[in-house]
Amino acid sequence: MDRESFEAALPQAGFTETIARDLPAGDATPEHSHPFDARLLILSGALILDQGGIRRRYGAGEVCEVPRDTPHVETAGATGVSYIAGRRR
Asked: Which strand (E) or helix (H) includes residue 4?
């Protein structure tokens, strides 16, 4: 998916906040959760998402979702990751 289409679809699905984030290669967040649903579009690099005992790698152009209050870990791939995320409270 491209960024323009992704951003255009967010409000239609109730995602009212948007943030852009860059993580350096190998950077990982500790396990955490958020009080909102998140939908991410990977712009470049790769993101490894561990949630609910499932680990999956997402690359450029792929979309992933993290439901509110779901514990998860985000790890940037070997070249880092840039993504845009919509938040739905």
From this structure: helix 3-9
Report the candidate in 18, 30, 25, 24 with the shortest Cα–Cα distance to residue 72: 30
Helices (H), 12-68: none
* Average pLDDT rounded to a whole number, residues 37-60: 97
Q: Tokens in use for 4?
A: 């323009």
With residue 26 as reference, give the H or E element that holds it: none
pTM score of the predicted model: 0.95
| CA 68 vs CA 3, 13, 24, 45, 88: distances in Å | 23, 15, 25, 25, 9
Residue type, 20: A
- List residues bridging with 56 in a β-sheet: 49
Distance of alpha carbon 60 from alpha carbon 16, whole angstroms:
23
